[in-house]
Amino acid sequence: MYKISLITGDGIGPELSESAVSVLNIIHDKLDLKFDITKLSAGDKALSETGKALPDETVSAIKNSDVCLKAPVGESAADVIVVLRRMLDLYANVRPAKSYPHMPALRDDIDMVIVRENTEDLYTGHEFSLGDAAVALRIISKKASTRIAKYAFETAKQRDSMRKVTCVHKSNVMRLTDGLFAKSCADVAKEYPDVIFEEMYVDACAMNLIRQPEQFDVIVTTNLFGDILSDESSQVVGGLGMAPAANIGDNFALFEPVHGAAFDIAGQNIANPSSFLLSIKMMLDWLGNKHNDSKCIEVGQKLESTIFNLVKTGVKTKDIGGDMGTVEFTKQITNNL
Ligand code: NAI
């Protein structure tokens, strides 16, 4: 029995959470993989109700669970997810961009992953006013850069792909901070002679993701660049509705969609739950590897292939060219699982 803490979120978060719970219940009842789910509040709603975007009870429940699932939250995201990433030292943000059939995508042959450093950079929140200026501190350490580089190289080694790591930075301008990041990655590369290593400036990378995305296998980059590039890479393969993510530390992990609370479509039963359900697939892989539980891996593969087969036959939500609602698409998944 795995204890899952579930932040239900804001905007489309509650709809995605209902979809996730339906799928986890079917897995629990019919596929014999047991979960105990605790629903938790965090985000804009929690802030207005309790005065805290990340209530203490939520943090305790997360720490008391085996793994956390987080639906998107709204304007208070920095006080929820950025804080959790740092508090739990979830240093690797893993964001795959993988082609699915018949997507309204730029390309249908892409399988890459962005490994984003998740604890430093401009996201540490060290901002202050100085005279008439606003100042932000950009913190990049050798320790964090080295461990994310190692994570990226290990990821490339394990993937059934071209085994290549592209380190993305802007060291020609940010010579000290990105210079340190680039050098740390290059040093780690020497320990992995079987993995191809290259460096690319972030502006060139943004362009190449559109022009020639097939050249990428694993991108390793700093926090802010990774945030931006992963929205772009998800659009290359079909959009945010299909984009899952993992926040991984040495002992704990949190899984969430790449996207935010999507207030523009909230409450309309049109959000694509695949981003969250594919995050569950990543969660099952992580649990399986951590606990040496092949059942988790097997069920994760089943969940992904169920989504793959549905979209292949045109059973899809509106954002990717279909006509199914969130609830109806979820029902198709639970029926087919
Ligand atoms: P967003 O990622 O929520 O939405 C961008 C666009 O993608 C919107 O047009 C939306 O409708 C569409 N979209 C996103 N997910 C979708 C899905 N599952 N199915 C179909 N369409 C989908 O970005 P936006 O609008 O800039 O941010 C909204 C709120 O989310 C903000 O308050 C922001 O602070 C928050 N946010 C939270 C994050 C988190 O919890 N990790 C991450 C990013 C933003």
Rg, Cα atoms, Å? 19 Å
Mean pLDDT across the residues is 97
For the record, the CATH architecture of the largest domain stands as 3-Layer(aba) Sandwich
Sketch the major β-sheet: 10 strands, mixed
SSE order, as H and E?
EHEHHEHEEEEHEHEHEHEEHHH
Record field, number of beta strands: 12
Distance between the termini: 20 Å
Number of self-contained structural domains: 2
CATH topology of the largest domain: Isopropylmalate Dehydrogenase
Tell me, briefly, the overall form: globular
Catalogue the unreliable spans.
Answer: none
The CATH superfamily name of the largest domain is Isopropylmalate Dehydrogenase
* Proportion of strand residues: 15-25%
Order the strands across the largest sheet as they lie in space: 2-1-3-12-11-4-5-10-8-9
Percentage of residues in helical conformation: 40-55%
- Supply the number of helical segments: 11
Question: What is the class of the largest domain in the CATH system?
Answer: Alpha Beta
Which molecules are bound in this entry? 1,4-dihydronicotinamide adenine dinucleotide
Structural class: alpha/beta
Written description of the protein model:
Strands 2-1-3-12-11-4-5-10-8-9 form a ten-stranded mixed beta sheet, sandwiched between helices. The chain is globular. The protein has two domains: 1-91 and 244-337, 3-Layer(aba) Sandwich (Isopropylmalate Dehydrogenase), CATH 3.40.718; 106-236, Isopropylmalate Dehydrogenase (3-Layer(aba) Sandwich). Helix 5 packs across helix 6. It has helices spanning 13-30, 44-50, 56-63, 77-87, 142-158, 177-189, 202-211, 223-237, 274-291, 294-312, 326-336, and strands at residues 2-7, 35-40, 67-70, 92-98, 111-117, 127-130, 133-136, 164-169, 196-201, 218-221, 244-248, 253-257. With 337 residues, the chain is α/β, with parallel strands linked by helices. The protein binds 1,4-dihydronicotinamide adenine dinucleotide.
